[in-house]
Design a protein that fits this description.
single chain, 429 residues, alpha/beta, 7-stranded parallel β-sheet, 14 strands, 36% helix, 15% strand, binds adenosine monophosphate
Length: 429
Amino acid sequence: MRFSSLGLSAPILRAIAEQGYETPTPIQAKAIPLVINGQDVMAAAQTGTGKTAGFTLPILERLSTGGRAQANHVRALVLTPTRELAAQVSESVATYGKHLPLRSAVVFGGVKINPQMMQLRRGVDILVATPGRLLDLYQQNAVKFSQLEVLVLDEADRMLDMGFIHDIRKILALLPARRQNLLFSATFSDDIRKLAKGLVNNPVEISVSPPNSTVQKVRQWICPVDKKQKPALLTQMINDNDWQQVLVFTRTKHGANKLTRYLEAEGIRAAAIHGNKSQGARTRALADFKMGTIRILVATDIAARGLDINQLPQVVNFDLPNVPEDYVHRIGRTGRAGSNGDAVSLVSADEFKQLSDIERLIKQLLTRQLMDGFEPVHSLPESYLNTRPLASKKSKPKQPNTTGSGRSTEGRRTTGHFKPTARKPHRSQ
Ligand code: AMP
């Protein structure tokens, strides 16, 4: 399959070639012709599948014909849950559309609204926006939707998780009924389907990553350790393995700050990225991380969502998320675009429930590996695979099934992950 067979015109194909993309990813191969054709699409695709180009390229194609956007008007609207994702989608629009005479803009909260109002004044063909700021702009008459042709909800599941449902409904009520709708989501939960009902018309459903397929591409393992020992263990892992670019997840903003301070005190350049940081601080941290001036980016789940960092080799779960699906999102940050990824979780005994829920969701027991000198005093119970499906995304962690059915020996194997120079790992139980 080649990009040239998907119905994209020369200026877009040129931009794709300049990016060095040779073949469309599966989501692109499926979505591009449908979107060019004007159909509504519901796509189950996670970050890392090439989904952004999957909707951006055909939208550019569609918008390249037809009249220009009038003052304050928008022809295509992409809604994203986070500022970071909005910025990245907008970057993709600019990259893929650079040989087209189309105007695009990005608007999100946390920065001054006036420059955004100025940008909208001339009209934009593609507007990428977070819901809250878009509504603010609408209330100030800075944006008009009567010319809208296409609506995209990107990472719709995350938008619902983040409580944007009311904002989304308000926005939908402002849009013309006749429009094309594209809904991208990592999962199609009941909530997403409910939202989709009032949104898409006869959509074509496409799915390129059956749930959790990302998980299989990534080498995942856990290191049982006492809670208090986690910062020291992480420091040793970074030093022993000479990790140069690591995304570390913490459950809380406070935890992210504390760990960042600890690492800095250990002489390891680190920065935290979370909801309490200003947009400027977040952008700077991400840029420093990409450039390699900081080695460790410590992030909370929401802040990390949508970060586009190519081929991130190493992800560390400093603590496990309460929502098991977040684990899948987290490790989706590594092993992207076909490269190998490694994801290690530092798991203390009090996190056993979260671990069991994750193993149940991904339908596998995670390989355990102890580190010499960090053997936990409070030992992590052995896992058993519970094959009953999880009730819902937001369900509280449940007790694992300990009846013995579905028991696996995989939890006893070591992975031999560390470089030969590292301390030799040994068996876990
Ligand atoms: P996304 O899933 O949209 O976040 O994209 C993941 C990454 O894959 C981005 O860094 C893109 O630049 C890259 N990418 C998208 N499409 C292709 C392609 N056809 N070939 C190679 N890389 C791609």
